[in-house]
């Protein structure tokens, strides 16, 4: 009996088997192994529904006296609370991004970033997750070109996933293909402009390209989204010096 993961494995296997293997560009590994995101657990906000409670009925009205209204007091009102509507995944991401921008300690920021990463990866299908794990193994084996191909297959299945574009940009940076990495990050940020990790990666790529002002601008965006990423502004100051030289 085929397991539930068999169709996903078969699709990923077929996509990998159909790749053209006669020639594969060997990218130059400019940096250490960059591990693609692996936090794939989904998070959701628990619904807060209160049970409806009814108040006891009011006591019977006394017999009306002559000259008075015959209508007695109304029955007791039934109080109820409307259950809060469960937030969608994009709404949860937006709420956590707001909290990250107001984080007061590095520990709080790390916790919020972990939750954000899990939510961003929660929309990936089982087949896409399989390809992402394969890309991670290729990266660990210092095979960034094969990791890029795995993620290209994943993007063919879910082209609207910002985290996949960012992951492929990581692999392209490792392969030394800076221009392609920037293109992928542009796609990622177009879909998720409040992803501090994508902005941080963009700053790294621009720094590798020796574009100091662009690297500085991207890092300034990181600090808007996550002030605790560089609490003492040491990296910010270093990038400023690279971009404009030592202050006189």
TrEMBL record:
Residue stretches of biased makeup (Low complexity): 57-80
InterPro entries in the record: TPR-like_helical_dom_sf (IPR011990), TPR_rpt (IPR019734)
Renumbered residue ranges of the record's region Disordered: 57-89
Domain of life: Bacteria
Record-annotated membrane-spanning stretches: none
Name the UniProt record assigns to this protein: Uncharacterized protein
């Amino acid at each position: 009996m085929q397991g539930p993961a068999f169709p996903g494995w078969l699709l990923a296997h077929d996509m990998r088997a159909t790749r053209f293997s006669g020639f594969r560009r060997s990218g130059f590994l400019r940096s250490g192994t960059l591990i693609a995101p692996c936090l794939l657990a989904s998070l959701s906000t628990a619904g807060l529904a209160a049970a409806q409670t009814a108040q006891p009925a009011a006591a019977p009205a006394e017999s009306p006296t002559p000259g008075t209204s015959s209508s007695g007091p109304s029955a007791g009102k039934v109080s109820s609370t409307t259950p809060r509507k469960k937030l969608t995944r994009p709404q949860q991401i937006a709420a956590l991004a707001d909290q990250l921008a107001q984080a007061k300690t590095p520990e709080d920021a790390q916790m919020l970033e972990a939750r954000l990463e899990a939510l961003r990866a929660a929309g990936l299908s089982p087949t896409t997750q399989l390809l992402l794990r394969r890309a991670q193994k290729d990266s660990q084996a210092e095979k960034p070109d094969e990791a890029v191909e795995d993620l290209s297959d994943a993007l063919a299945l879910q082209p609207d996933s910002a985290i996949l574009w960012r992951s492929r940009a990581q692999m392209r940076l490792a392969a030394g293909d800076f221009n392609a990495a920037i293109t992928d990050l542009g796609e990622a940020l177009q879909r998720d402009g409040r992803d501090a990790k994508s902005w941080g990666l963009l700053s790294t790529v621009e720094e590798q390209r020796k574009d100091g002002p662009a690297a500085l601008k991207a890092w300034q965006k990181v600090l808007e989204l996550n002030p605790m990423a560089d609490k003492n502004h040491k990296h910010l100051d270093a990038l400023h010096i690279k971009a404009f030289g030592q202050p006189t």
